[in-house]
Amino acid sequence: MTEQELRQQLVEVSRRLNASGLNQGTSGNLSVRIPGGLLITPSSLPFEQMQPQDLVAIDPSGKPLAAVAGGWRPSSEWRLHADLLTSRPEIQAVLHCHSIHATALACHGRPIPPFHYMTAVAGGNDIRCAPYATFGTAELSALAVQAMEDRLACLLAQHGQVTLGTSLDQALRIAVEVETLAQMYLQALQLGEPPLLSAAQMAAVHQQFRSLHYGAGA
């Protein structure tokens, strides 16, 4: 894709994120890799008002790669996006949001265990929860990178969720699945701690995903 096409897609996926109910107000942020750095949603601009030219192009250290027509600053979480993209060269897109059920679990510092086979959609047997750190800091980024090792999603304690993808569409699909799993897990907890799938059972799930080309990469 050209940069202009990526800008248009980033705007469209941002609006789909809000329309899905996973995001509220201006709390979410998305990015996509470009040569020399990344395109990221601007700070404090509602997605419904955002236009392709409002997106901010920065290098991995946060320096602007080009002037922004409206003078917008990059999202306060730019470091989280930049560090995740730097640490995962196979990844093209990062999505962060404060979806209700995933954030409720994150407020208790609870990961999503393999209570349901679809936890495999994030690339492992569970969806980890990174410890709390102040938003926008290098500490938060480092904890998220660690929690995301061999994964495509994690929770951030007292904060929200983050997903990765080889495309913006994939990052959004995984975010929807994480929120769905979080809601199901909270419901299951009403009856007590649910039984968990074993490592062997989850290994079979991963094998089935691969054989059917199913899951996060589908």
Task: Give structural notes.
- The structure is a single chain.
- This protein is α+β, with helices and mostly antiparallel strands and about 220 residues long.
- Helix content is about 35%, strand content about 15%.
- The protein is built from six helices and seven strands.
- The chain has helices at about 5-20, 80-85, 100-105, 140-145, 170-190, 200-210, and strands at about 30-35, 35-40, 55-60, 95, 130, 155, 160-165.
- A seven-stranded mixed β-sheet has the order 3-2-1-4-7-6-5, with helices on both faces.
- The longest helix is centred in the C-terminal third of the chain and has 22 residues, at about 170-190.
- It is globular and about 55 Å long.
- The mean pLDDT is about 95.
List keywords for this structure.
218 residues, alpha+beta, seven-stranded mixed beta sheet, 6 helices, 37% helix
